Amino acid sequence: MALRWFAVYALLEIAAFVAMAMTLGFPWAVLITIGAGVLGFLTLRRQGRKVFGELRRAADNQVDPREPLADTAVVAASTLLLVIPGVVSTAVGMLMLFPPTRKLLRPLVAVLAARRAATLMDRAGLYATGTYRRTSVTVDGSVVDGAVVDAAGSGTQGPGAGPAPLITPQLPPTR
Predict the structure, then answer these.
(1) How far is C-alpha 27 from the geometric centre of its chain's CA atoms?
(2) Which of 13, 113, 158, 160 is most buried by its number of CB atoms within 10 A?
(3) Whether 36 contacts 91, CB under 8 Å
(4) Would you say the pTM of this structure is higher than 0.70?
(5) Does the keyword Magnesium apply (predicted)?
């Protein structure tokens, strides 16, 4: 499924670049692609400073932490999109940096974070939500009856008969 999404993304990026190259010419398409990336990074610096300043204020209990945390997640996603080369990913990444877009994306970030947290808590066994189901594994095999003898051969048998001998791993000699 992930490979299918990647193929769709790659085709979209290639189609956008080819359309831009056919319309404006190849040198202009390359220049616009590079320029959009540079403009995206400059916008990221400015907006990133604002978001991390708000996150600092939230850490000092000066503001409610929900909005700065969601904005930080959106800025992180936009950074990833700006780093990936391509016209479409750069445009979407730049769009995600602007405050009105971040405000629209906050509920989506909250839903995704809650779903991920519930899954992780369920995996840890803290409570069952039904989002993650453990499967039991049955191993076919046979049980061998007998006594446990330690490696030194001292004859102690059974678990708890004494401390296990300390075995240090030996590396092969170097030439």
Answers:
(1) 35
(2) 13
(3) yes
(4) no
(5) no
